[in-house]
Structure formats: structure tokens, C-alpha cells
Write a structure and sequence with these properties.
Layout: E1 7-10, H1 18-24, E2 26-31, E3 61-64, H2 76-92, E4 96-100, H3 107-120, H4 124-134, H5 142-156
Helix pairs in contact: 3-4, 3-5
């Protein structure tokens, strides 16, 4: 299958759009924003039940990665949980995953790029290209791009990816 066939990159509007979820068979969400109380995007379909006991969309499984969209935000601490979540979705093959942030431009795209680099052996530029196939406006901020290019260099050297404290001390 195409590396991004199960991944949908979106923004805060997509995260709340029931028709969008149904049309794209979204059953999983990686929300790359802080909690709503800290200015992040709400997990709109989490624990939702109507009076009849049914949910407006199929039960949605969420992973929140509390990331800020600024050049100093460190991506690496979020990689492992994001990768595990995305791999679980790939194995289950029972729906797609929305990876969202506020605008769907930087944080969500950075997580998808890192995943493509790690699990499909793609470089930064090829991963960004694939990300733009699904989200034309995709553009990680300068700090995220720098970190992702460093991650790419580690993979090229056979580093095998991020191991806490080993390769990317200070990140």
C-alpha cells in the first residue's frame, strides 16, 4: 500500500467535522496540540455518546501529542508514541488516522514526515513531497525542518533512529 494511504493530515476544522471523518473512514486521531485548556484543539469525538447510546461517528481512538508550533519545540520526545500509534493503525487495517494540529501545516506534517522517514526509509524531501500529496500547504516550521533533517542524517549514518540521550542529546 501507498505509505500515506491510511494517513490524513488535517487542521482544527477537520478534527471536528463528522462528515469528514465518515467520508474518509477515520477511526484514529493523533492530535498534535496541547490540551484544549492550554490553547490546543479539542478531541471532539472522544467519549461522545448520544442519548440513544450511539456515537455520532464510530468510536475514535485518540493520541494527544502536546506540541507547540514554534521553532524551539522538540519533536523527538513525541516520535515513539506517534510511531507506535501509526503502526497499530497500519496493522489493524480498520480505518484511517487523522494527524491534526491547529492549521495542519507544521506539527502534524512533521510527525507524518518523521514516520515516513523511519518506517519507509524515505528522506526528508521525499517525505515532505508525499505529505504535500495529501496536504498541499504542508510546511513544517524552520525548527522542525532542521530537526527532521538531523533525524534523516542519523538514519543515513545507520543510527537507526532516535534513542533517548544517545544521538540527539539536548533535543
Amino acid at each position: 500500500p501507498h505509505p500515506v494511504s491510511q494517513i490524513v493530515i488535517g487542521d482544527r476544522q477537520h478534527a471536528r467535522d463528522e462528515a469528514f471523518f465518515r467520508l474518509r473512514d477515520i477511526r484514529y486521531v493523533i492530535n498534535c496540540t496541547p490540551p484544549r485548556t492550554e490553547g490546543g484543539v479539542n478531541n471532539f469525538f472522544e467519549n461522545l455518546h448520544s442519548k440513544s447510546g450511539t456515537t455520532p461517528v464510530p468510536q475514535i481512538e485518540y493520541l494527544r501529542l502536546p506540541m507547540q508550533d514554534n521553532a524551539s519545540e522538540k519533536l523527538y520526545p513525541s516520535f515513539q508514541s506517534a510511531f507506535e500509534f501509526l503502526e497499530r493503525v497500519a496493522v489493524r487495517e480498520d480505518g484511517r488516522v487523522l494527524v491534526n494540529c491547529n492549521q495542519g501545516l507544521s506539527r502534524s506534517v512533521a510527525v507524518v514526515i518523521a514516520y515516513l522517514m523511519r518506517y519507509f526509509g524515505l528522506g526528508y524531501d521525499d517525505s515532505l513531497y508525499l505529505g504535500r500529496e495529501g496536504r498541499e500547504s504542508a510546511k513544517p516550521n524552520a525548527g522542525f525542518e532542521l530537526q527532521l533533517r538531523e533525524y534523516e542524517a542519523i538514519w543515513e549514518k545507520g543510527g537507526g533512529g532516535y534513542r533517548e540521550g544517545e544521538y540527539l542529546e539536548g533535543y
